[in-house]
Design goal:
Blueprint: H1 6-9, H2 36-39, E1 43-48, E2 51-56, E3 65-69, E4 71-74, E5 85-86, E6 92-95, E7 103-104, E8 110-118, E9 125-133, E10 142-145, E11 155-156, E12 167-168, H3 174-182
Parallel strand pairs: 7-10
Antiparallel strand pairs: 1-2, 2-10, 3-9, 4-6, 5-6, 8-9, 11-12
The protein binds zinc ion.
Amino acid sequence: MRDVDDEDTGRRRSKTERRQGPRRPRTGAGDERPTRGARDKSVRIGATRVGKGVFARRRYPAEAVIGEIEGQIIDDPHYGSDYCMNIGDGRTLEPAAPFRYVNHSCEPNCEFDFFDLPDAGQTDTRRRVFLIALREIKPGEELTIDYNWAAASAIACRCQSPSCRGWIVDPGQLDALLARLAVLPSPDR
Ligand SMILES: [Zn+2]
Protein backbone atom coordinates (compact mmCIF):
# COMPACT_ATOMS: atom_id res chain seq x y z
CA MET A 1 0.00 0.00 0.00
CA ARG A 2 1.26 3.46 -0.71
CA ASP A 3 1.91 6.06 1.87
CA VAL A 4 0.38 9.47 1.47
CA ASP A 5 0.85 12.68 3.36
CA ASP A 6 -1.98 14.43 5.11
CA GLU A 7 -2.49 16.83 2.20
CA ASP A 8 -3.65 13.91 0.07
CA THR A 9 -5.98 12.42 2.61
CA GLY A 10 -8.33 15.38 2.50
CA ARG A 11 -8.45 15.26 6.26
CA ARG A 12 -6.23 18.15 7.30
CA ARG A 13 -7.86 20.20 9.98
CA SER A 14 -7.06 22.81 12.53
CA LYS A 15 -5.48 21.92 15.85
CA THR A 16 -8.58 22.83 17.77
CA GLU A 17 -11.06 20.88 15.70
CA ARG A 18 -11.91 17.23 15.95
CA ARG A 19 -14.40 14.80 14.61
CA GLN A 20 -17.67 15.45 16.30
CA GLY A 21 -19.20 12.63 18.24
CA PRO A 22 -22.00 10.60 16.78
CA ARG A 23 -25.51 10.86 18.08
CA ARG A 24 -24.45 8.15 20.49
CA PRO A 25 -21.08 7.95 22.33
CA ARG A 26 -17.74 6.04 21.68
CA THR A 27 -14.29 5.16 23.42
CA GLY A 28 -10.97 3.19 23.47
CA ALA A 29 -7.46 2.99 24.85
CA GLY A 30 -4.03 1.52 24.32
CA ASP A 31 -1.32 3.01 22.17
CA GLU A 32 0.64 1.47 19.29
CA ARG A 33 -0.67 -1.97 20.12
CA PRO A 34 -1.72 -4.18 17.24
CA THR A 35 -5.49 -4.06 17.16
CA ARG A 36 -7.83 -6.96 16.76
CA GLY A 37 -8.72 -5.56 13.36
CA ALA A 38 -5.05 -5.57 12.38
CA ARG A 39 -4.54 -9.19 13.39
CA ASP A 40 -7.66 -10.79 12.06
CA LYS A 41 -8.93 -10.81 8.52
CA SER A 42 -12.07 -8.78 9.06
CA VAL A 43 -10.78 -5.57 7.47
CA ARG A 44 -7.81 -4.40 5.47
CA ILE A 45 -6.20 -1.01 4.78
CA GLY A 46 -6.01 -0.09 1.11
CA ALA A 47 -5.53 2.87 -1.20
CA THR A 48 -8.43 5.17 -2.14
CA ARG A 49 -8.79 8.42 -4.13
CA VAL A 50 -8.22 10.38 -0.94
CA GLY A 51 -5.41 8.35 0.67
CA LYS A 52 -5.64 5.24 2.78
CA GLY A 53 -8.99 3.68 3.52
CA VAL A 54 -10.39 0.66 5.35
CA PHE A 55 -12.16 -2.14 3.50
CA ALA A 56 -14.35 -5.02 4.67
CA ARG A 57 -12.92 -8.51 4.08
CA ARG A 58 -16.18 -10.21 4.91
CA ARG A 59 -19.89 -9.50 4.98
CA TYR A 60 -21.34 -7.58 7.90
CA PRO A 61 -25.06 -7.42 8.61
CA ALA A 62 -26.63 -4.11 9.62
CA GLU A 63 -25.82 -3.15 13.22
CA ALA A 64 -22.84 -5.55 13.37
CA VAL A 65 -19.93 -4.44 15.55
CA ILE A 66 -17.06 -4.47 13.04
CA GLY A 67 -14.36 -3.88 15.60
CA GLU A 68 -13.12 -1.87 18.53
CA ILE A 69 -11.46 1.42 17.64
CA GLU A 70 -8.41 1.32 19.85
CA GLY A 71 -5.99 4.14 20.42
CA GLN A 72 -4.91 6.69 22.96
CA ILE A 73 -7.45 8.59 25.04
CA ILE A 74 -6.42 12.18 25.62
CA ASP A 75 -8.07 13.98 28.51
CA ASP A 76 -7.63 17.51 27.15
CA PRO A 77 -10.59 19.45 25.74
CA HIS A 78 -8.20 21.55 23.61
CA TYR A 79 -6.53 18.58 21.91
CA GLY A 80 -6.92 18.31 18.15
CA SER A 81 -5.43 16.26 15.31
CA ASP A 82 -6.24 15.06 11.81
CA TYR A 83 -7.87 11.85 13.01
CA CYS A 84 -9.04 12.35 16.58
CA MET A 85 -12.57 11.52 17.68
CA ASN A 86 -14.65 13.26 20.32
CA ILE A 87 -15.68 10.68 22.92
CA GLY A 88 -17.48 12.96 25.33
CA ASP A 89 -16.61 14.47 28.71
CA GLY A 90 -13.90 16.61 27.09
CA ARG A 91 -11.97 13.52 26.06
CA THR A 92 -10.58 12.62 22.65
CA LEU A 93 -9.54 9.32 21.10
CA GLU A 94 -6.50 9.35 18.83
CA PRO A 95 -7.36 6.16 16.93
CA ALA A 96 -4.82 3.48 16.02
CA ALA A 97 -4.75 1.54 12.76
CA PRO A 98 -6.68 0.10 11.09
CA PHE A 99 -9.70 2.22 11.99
CA ARG A 100 -7.58 5.39 12.07
CA TYR A 101 -7.92 5.31 8.30
CA VAL A 102 -11.72 5.12 7.99
CA ASN A 103 -12.66 7.84 5.51
CA HIS A 104 -15.60 10.24 5.50
CA SER A 105 -18.71 9.78 3.37
CA CYS A 106 -21.86 11.88 3.26
CA GLU A 107 -23.66 8.51 2.92
CA PRO A 108 -21.65 6.42 5.39
CA ASN A 109 -22.09 2.68 5.88
CA CYS A 110 -20.73 2.80 9.44
CA GLU A 111 -20.73 4.93 12.54
CA PHE A 112 -18.68 4.89 15.69
CA ASP A 113 -20.25 4.52 19.06
CA PHE A 114 -18.83 4.59 22.58
CA PHE A 115 -19.81 2.69 25.67
CA ASP A 116 -18.50 2.44 29.21
CA LEU A 117 -17.66 -1.26 29.44
CA PRO A 118 -15.33 -3.45 31.51
CA ASP A 119 -12.52 -5.43 29.90
CA ALA A 120 -12.90 -9.22 30.04
CA GLY A 121 -12.66 -10.46 33.63
CA GLN A 122 -12.70 -6.92 35.03
CA THR A 123 -15.37 -5.00 36.87
CA ASP A 124 -14.13 -1.43 36.35
CA THR A 125 -15.47 0.09 33.19
CA ARG A 126 -13.63 2.27 30.71
CA ARG A 127 -14.86 4.19 27.69
CA ARG A 128 -14.51 1.98 24.62
CA VAL A 129 -15.22 2.91 21.00
CA PHE A 130 -16.60 0.58 18.35
CA LEU A 131 -17.16 0.77 14.62
CA ILE A 132 -20.69 -0.34 13.81
CA ALA A 133 -22.34 -1.15 10.46
CA LEU A 134 -25.29 1.11 9.62
CA ARG A 135 -26.45 -1.28 6.88
CA GLU A 136 -25.35 -4.55 5.32
CA ILE A 137 -21.76 -4.31 4.09
CA LYS A 138 -20.39 -6.61 1.42
CA PRO A 139 -16.84 -7.98 1.22
CA GLY A 140 -14.55 -5.45 -0.49
CA GLU A 141 -16.68 -2.39 0.34
CA GLU A 142 -14.88 0.58 1.81
CA LEU A 143 -15.98 1.37 5.36
CA THR A 144 -16.94 5.00 5.89
CA ILE A 145 -18.29 7.23 8.64
CA ASP A 146 -19.68 10.77 8.65
CA TYR A 147 -17.02 13.01 10.20
CA ASN A 148 -19.62 15.64 11.14
CA TRP A 149 -16.98 18.36 11.32
CA ALA A 150 -17.83 21.81 12.59
CA ALA A 151 -18.30 24.49 9.91
CA ALA A 152 -15.07 26.19 10.99
CA SER A 153 -13.01 23.17 9.92
CA ALA A 154 -15.01 22.05 6.88
CA ILE A 155 -13.16 21.08 3.73
CA ALA A 156 -14.43 20.17 0.28
CA CYS A 157 -15.82 16.62 0.17
CA ARG A 158 -14.86 14.18 -2.54
CA CYS A 159 -16.99 11.25 -1.37
CA GLN A 160 -19.01 11.26 -4.65
CA SER A 161 -22.12 9.88 -2.97
CA PRO A 162 -25.43 10.94 -4.59
CA SER A 163 -26.34 13.09 -1.59
CA CYS A 164 -22.85 14.56 -1.08
CA ARG A 165 -23.12 17.84 0.83
CA GLY A 166 -20.09 19.18 -1.05
CA TRP A 167 -18.31 19.73 2.24
CA ILE A 168 -17.11 17.51 5.04
CA VAL A 169 -19.25 19.20 7.64
CA ASP A 170 -21.91 18.43 10.20
CA PRO A 171 -25.24 18.51 8.27
CA GLY A 172 -26.60 20.79 10.99
CA GLN A 173 -23.86 23.31 10.24
CA LEU A 174 -24.03 23.19 6.43
CA ASP A 175 -26.34 26.23 6.17
CA ALA A 176 -24.05 28.23 8.44
CA LEU A 177 -21.07 27.23 6.32
CA LEU A 178 -22.78 28.19 3.04
CA ALA A 179 -23.91 31.52 4.52
CA ARG A 180 -20.34 32.20 5.57
CA LEU A 181 -19.07 31.38 2.07
CA ALA A 182 -21.75 33.56 0.42
CA VAL A 183 -20.45 36.73 2.06
CA LEU A 184 -16.87 36.14 0.96
CA PRO A 185 -15.81 38.79 -1.59
CA SER A 186 -15.82 37.47 -5.14
CA PRO A 187 -12.34 37.28 -6.67
CA ASP A 188 -13.70 39.12 -9.76
CA ARG A 189 -14.60 42.27 -7.85
ZN1 LIG B 1 -19.60 14.02 0.44
